[in-house]
Design brief:
Helix content: over 70%
Shape: globular
Number of helices: 11
Low-confidence stretches: none
Distance between the termini: 61 Å
Structural class: mainly alpha
Largest sheet: 2 strands, antiparallel
Strand content: under 5%
Number of domains: 1
Number of strands: 2
Order of helices and strands: HHHHHHEEHHHHH
Length: about 300
């Protein structure tokens, strides 16, 4: 194993250790101030690793890293909407939500590795897979743009039915435990079901985000590290943004543009390679403009009310 992978593993392990055994040693409701400070910490860590990529692999790989990081951060905002629905439906107490997200992130680290390296191998041996990925992203962009929000009914999903069949469920959260034992029998709590849905939602989002980041870079180290550092800060971002995300009415337009652009980039890759710097600029601009538009409209609505 190369030294850079060892450094990456050491940084991630240390950060997760601090997060679980220092920052959140005792379960508690995370305040907005704490969430913002933790978000700043994870963002600074992700950007600092980008600087390491620059000195280790050069300018081109560093630009790819920052573009991939920003792309995954943007797409992960959509995950937060889903997390809000999951925690609300299963009535997970606020002081235990970080625990669910922590274990969800550990699962995401494993599943993203599988998807990313499988995707890279597919592209390596079957180049035409790039066009399938491009079509998937364009379809996802159209779906995001045209699909209306629906109510969340997990009990109607296959995931819920399988989990319920495999292990009996208890209606209470068992003081922050995923499982409780009563009468010599093991039961799953709503917290466990929330974790299952957090993991399954990340797998579904990976169908979009992994092909998208593979359009930015084919370097396994750059692709995986940028993806993971963006995901690591998702928990703190949830607590910082959960209260204000509903204000961003036009965010889905920006995300739709990003997915569509990356899809087109993949379809054109054989004929014209769009510079990574252009991708970085367009992704950043799409996020910025959609957020600004949302805030401006919200302010006008408040003034007219």
């Amino acid at each position: 194993m190369e030294l850079e992978w060892l450094i990456f593993g050491a940084v991630v392990f240390t950060a997760l250790f601090l997060d679980l055994f220092v920052f959140h040693r005792n379960p508690h409701k995370i305040s907005l101030k704490e969430a913002l400070l933790l978000s700043a910490f994870w963002i600074a860590l992700g950007l600092a690793f980008g600087v390491f990529v620059y000195f280790d692999r050069g300018y081109d790989r560093a630009v790819e890293y920052f573009t991939g990081y920003l792309l995954e951060k943007a797409l992960s905002l959509d995950n937060i909407f889903v997390f809000i629905l999951i925690f609300s439906y299963f009535k997970v107490p606020e002081e235990y939500r970080h625990k669910v997200l922590f274990w969800g992130v550990l699962g995401a680290i494993v599943f993203r590795a599988i998807f990313i390296f499988a995707g890279l191998e597919l592209i390596k041996h079957f180049h035409w897979v790039v066009y399938i990925f491009g079509v998937i992203l364009i379809v996802s962009a159209i779906k995001l743009l045209t699909t209306e929000e629906k109510e969340f009914h997990p009990e109607q999903t296959l995931v819920y039915r399988i989990a319920k069949r495999l292990i009996p469920l208890k209606p209470h959260n068992g003081d922050g435990r995923f499982f409780i034992k009563e009468g010599g029998r093991l039961y799953a709590t709503p917290m466990f079901l929330a974790l299952v849905f957090v993991e399954s939602s990340d797998i579904m989002f990976a169908i979009d985000s992994v092909p998208a980041i593979l359009a930015i870079s084919k370097d396994p180290f750059v692709v995986y590290t940028s993806n993971i550092f963006a995901i690591l800060g998702l928990r703190s971002l949830y607590f910082a943004a959960a209260g204000v995300l509903p204000l961003f009415h036009y965010l889905h337009y920006g995300l739709s543009f990003i997915l569509g652009f990356i899809g087109v980039k993949m379809l054109l890759s054989e004929f014209y390679k769009i510079p990574v710097e252009v991708s970085l600029l367009l992704i950043g601009s799409a996020i910025f403009l959609s957020v600004v538009a949302s805030l401006v409209v919200k302010k006008k609505e408040s003034n007219n009310a």
